[in-house]
Design brief:
This protein is of the alpha+beta class. Helix content is 17%, strand content 49%. The chain has a single domain, classed as Lipocalin (Beta Barrel).
Length: 183
Amino acid sequence: MKRLLQLIVICLIITQTEDAFAQVYKTETGKAEFLSKAPLNEFVGTSDKLNGLIDLDKNLVDFFIDLNTLKTGISLRDKHMRENYLETKKYPFAEFTGKFKTIPKFDQKSQEEVIVLGVFKIHGVERKVEIPATIQKTSNNNEVAFQSKFIIKLSDYKITIPKVVFYELAEEQEVTISGILKK
């Protein structure tokens, strides 16, 4: 019995030690924003429901968002965006999964410029992409700040824009994600 208790204690210590050194950071409150600059109309859509994970041990980067949480400030435009273009009943999520080109050091002293290679999926279409980002460990050693800005073309993801709406909705959307990941 004493031997069994010793084994249990050793297992608990090993598990806690592994957790202490784990390099996994998560968020459920990251921010996602898209900027549409069409000839006659410019608007921004935002959400503070970006979910993300960085696992340095596995070199895994995974972010996703429920597209129904995006808001542009005009409810009728939001409804048309979801129903007519993003088709969120059929394709509710956008997701990026990838790996760091070079695994970052997460230095507190400076921001690190990184490249993440992976697959971006939206509207049921997956495309290989290369995403630039900046990351930095915060003063709290259990947190990492991140930000990324990249362009997506709606036609690359089979999101069609009627010619009538062409002047109101841009073919290229500038996407920005940011937030704090916690260990």
